[in-house]
Structure formats: C-alpha cells, structure tokens
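User: I'm curious whether this sequence folds into something compact or stays loose and floppy. Could you predict its structure so I can see for myself?
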Amino acid sequence: MTDRGTAVLLREAAPGDAGEITAIFLASRAAALPGLRRVHSDADTLAWITHVVLPGSRVWVAEGSTGELLGFAALDGDELDHLYLRPGALRQGIGTLLLERVKSASRGELGLHTFRRNTGARAFYERHGFTAVAYDDGSRNEEGEPDVRYRWSAAAGRA
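Assistant: Here's the prediction. I'll summarize afterward.
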C-alpha cells in the first residue's frame, strides 16, 4: 500500500516486463525533461532494457492492482541506476516504496546521477537523505545534459 491507499505490489522484474519498463522510462523522461535530446530510438531503448538493464542489475517493479506497471528501480552494485514512474503515478508514495526497497537491498550506501534541471527528482532524493556531492557539465552522459552526483549512506541517517 502507498500512503494514499493505492494497492501496489513490489516484485522483482521479469524478462517479460521489458516492454512496459521501456514505456515507463520513455514517458517519464519526456514528461520530466521536455526537450531532452533523444539519443536512441524506442527500439534501441527496448533492446538496452532487455539485454543490459534487466540481466545486469537488480530490478524491481511497482505493479498496480490492475496489473499495470507503475514504476521501476534498478540497482547495480552501489549505484541506483534507474528509478522511474509513469507520469500519472507521481506523488502517491510509489517512488518512496521503490527507493526504500533499493536501500534495503544495498550495502548501506548508494550513489546516483540525475540531470540538474530535473528539479522534481532532485527534491525527491534530497527528501530521502541523498546529498549532492558533485556537478558535471554534461560531458559524462550521452545527452550532453549537466547533471548532479548524489550519495546516500545509512550510517549518515543514524548520526
């Protein structure tokens, strides 16, 4: 359950979820970052999710009561590589559920990158104990978009 009473099941992603995960990834980025340079086709993004993200990371999905996927998160070592929600699933506690699942599966530390202009994501991570530790001019990512490096430590939350 989310904090708004919506029934949500968190489960590990299956290979058959790749299409819906790709749709969430693309829709979320388009809604949060209008004008973000697209560097890959939808088909290439699906292939990347299918052949790189799903087999190479621990991926969880948030599934609604109708069976529709509402979001997903991917953990690769100590890196939160992805946390995306369907645009209509924001501010319902689903992102928090996914992030708490990733934190509980981590070794007590996480890092992530998000685009600087994604103020919604930045505020979300800061509310959940992440601290900005570095800023980049966009030369480190394919989109050429300035980003922020965040870190979280369970130990810092207990201090």
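Summary: The mean pLDDT is 92. The helical segments are 18-32, 42-56, 94-105, 119-127, 154-158.
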